[in-house]
Amino acid sequence: MRIALLTSLLLTACTVGDTGTGATNNGTPDAGSSGGSDSGGTPTGTTGLGACVNKEASPPPAYQHKAGGTSNAGANCIVAQCHANNAKGVDAPGFQFAGTVYLTGTTNPAAGVTVRLKSADKTLPPVVTDTDGNFYFPAMSISGTFTAITDVTGCPTVKPMITSLQSGGPGSGSCNLCHTAAAGGTTTPIYY
Prior knowledge:
Mean pLDDT: 74
Strand content: 15-25%
Distance between the termini: 24 Å
Radius of gyration: 15 Å
Low-confidence stretches: 1-45
């Protein structure tokens, strides 16, 4: 069963790297694609989370919020009265990590790609972006203090985040808070 997915990826106080865009991020080169293929057409490359995963041909539909009637793609959704686990909005599930993935260099959603996250002692079930590029991992997916790695994949491409996620900090888990083209964002959007 697929989880209905919502908003961006990565959990620190906006000190995280970007998934590969082929450019630089705050003076640090992005990871780029670690995927490719061997002479037989088999995808190659891993990020510590595994080889690439095929894109979903039929990604989950974008969730339309009761308030506003949109999917809120690109919005900071882990805030009070939305999806903050300790102060959820009416009928809203709590999220630990959430964000939006875009096609590289555009504002077009990357629908049907897989987002993966792994801490030192726990690998979360992967999630697939919905038709608006949104994803989320449920609240309490990882507990305590941790460091984690994450990537976005759709064969033959695997785009890892170049730095580790760190628990805690303002905006922790709300990937779109940092990964935005808007003023105040510390890195580019999450690109696939």
